[in-house]
Amino acid sequence: MAPTSPPTDRRPLVISGPSGVGKGTLLKRLFAHGSGDEFAFSVSHTTRAPRPGERDGVEYHFVSGDDFEALAGAGGFVEHARFGGNRYGTSRRALDEQTARGRVVVLDIEMEGVKQIKSSGIPARYVFVAPPSEEELERRLRGRGTESAESVQRRLDQAKLELEYAKTPGVHDKVIVNDDLETAYKELEDFVYAPAPSS
Ligand code: ADP
Ligand code: 5GP
């Protein structure tokens, strides 16, 4: 049964894991189950091109390389990184504004960003989503049909690094293997709605 009250732990939720593992799929469910105002997805800035169906300001703020550089130079990002030949970053303003409104801000970011958030002093909770196997990850990435052959390869190479980093003891508060979607979703929901340590 879906939770009936908002999460008591209001810290930002940082979700990471290899591209294609199912982070977006799990988050969509989480947002759909909530009442609509307890979570705020942190809409990142990126220099990558939109995929069919992606809308500017919803999945990402799609910006040019120059605009990205300008924002980074002005200290506008709490973290930013390069991934698969593109730049990605979390805007400081969005994080601050949504946190001030009492929302649980959800960040879907890769591991260099995770490291930067960890050293920023922002109190956050960290979830890592792992694939059942590298073969299954490749199947999902190809099956999604959004990437060129070259992009798939880059993402699979990066996945090895993400999986290696995730083995570092204590780096994530929760590791979820996304094999069966229902089971993985339930684990995510239980983690998100678990009572805050001080409550
Ligand atoms: P990410 O956001 O991590 O890059 P997506 O959410 O886009 O990944 O998922 C990648 C693909 O895998 C999508 O086509 C999605 O429907 C599929 N998928 C996600 N979770 C599962 C699962 N548990 N079993 C099978 N396919 C899945
Ligand atoms: P995609 O191109 O598939 O949307 O995202 C590629 C990778 O970039 C994913 O691992 C995703 O989590 C990560 N990503 C998305 N936004 C950000 C961000 O703002 N910062 C960082 N560091 N990574 C991000």
UniProtKB/TrEMBL annotation:
Domain Guanylate kinase-like: 10-193
GO cellular component: cytosol
Transmembrane segments: none
GO MF annotations, alphabetized: ATP binding; GMP kinase activity; hydrolase activity
Matches recorded under SMART domains: GuKc
EC supergroup of this enzyme: transferase
EC number: 2.7.4.8
Sequence similarity: Belongs to the guanylate kinase family.
Protein name: Guanylate kinase
Lineage of the organism: Eukaryota, Fungi, Dikarya, Ascomycota, Pezizomycotina
